[in-house]
Amino acid sequence: MAAWKELAETKNNKVTVVVPDYLNNRQVEVIVNLIKKPVTKKKKAVKKKAATKKAAVKKPKYDFSDLVGKLKWNGDAVAEQKKLRDEWK
Fold first, then answer.
1. Domain assignment of residue 32, yes or no
2. CA 43 → CA 21, 40, 48, distances in Å?
3. Which residues pair with 14 in a beta bridge?
4. Cα–Cα dist 14/86, whole Å
5. Mean pLDDT, rounded, for 45-69
6. pTM over 0.70
7. Mean pLDDT of 23-49
8. Alpha-carbon span 86 to 52, nearest angstrom
9. pLDDT greater than 60 at residue 65
């Protein structure tokens, strides 16, 4: 059994659904499930502002900005990564 899902809003006691081409001229079963009312855009904006404000207040644990460009690696980085990986086997 093939399934296809689309969310639609009711207006004047009617629901309009446009089906994909592969369902054209076929018999289908329609089931209507009531979902929770979506959050209004205003509430979403409030949550987004709160998350942004929280992120702005949170300080990073570590600050390596003073080391940028000062550290150098002498050796084979890939070999060292493999060695570290193999320790966990």
1. yes
2. 37, 5, 9
3. 11
4. 63
5. 68
6. no
7. 71
8. 40
9. yes
Nearest to 32 by CA among 65, 55, 9, 56: 9
Question: Do the Cβ atoms of 69 and 52 come closer than 8 Å?
Answer: no
In a domain, 7, yes or no: no
Is residue 15 in some structural domain? no
Residue 10's identity, in one-letter code, is T
The size of the chain, in residues, is: 89
Q: Position of tokens 């990986």? A: 85
Per the CB < 8 A criterion, the answer to whether 46 and 53 are in contact is no
- CB neighbour list of residue 28: distance below 8 Å, 6 or more residues apart: 19
Alpha helices in the chain (DSSP H): 41-57, 77-86
